[in-house]
Amino acid sequence: xxxxxxxxxxxxxxxxxxxxxxxxxxxxxxxxxxxxxxxxxxxxxxxxxxxxxxxxxxxxxxxxxxxxxxxxxxxxxxxxxxxxxxxxxxxxxxxxxxxxxxxxxxxxxxxxxxxxxxxxxxxxxxxxxxxxxxxxxxxxxxxxxxxxxxxx
Length: 152
What we know:
elongated; single chain; de novo design (two linked rop proteins); mainly alpha; 2 strands
């Protein structure tokens, strides 16, 4: 990445990192959605608790699989990040706050679900833990990004 006039290299790197992690989270959530609906695709790596977690009452919020909610959340984060990068200048800062707020909400929900895995189900879903790590990482980088843009 060459230094071009008007391009903040640190902001660009943070944006690339957040977008990459959000897209990876989206892929993970889409796989978990597929996992929910098609028993033939179920693969659990390392933990062996995916069936327990995804078959529990905590895998649904009403009639909606938690994985679908996760996919929607990641899509909204990607949309906010796209607006942060390419949207109208007057919306870019707000879009940064939206990406942060969505990632913070996702992190809080992932913390709750991980606590359910640990203390209620006594089983862990590798794919769920990956999603929790990704949304938390997006939240951390979004926090840094907003702090850096406040100093600029």
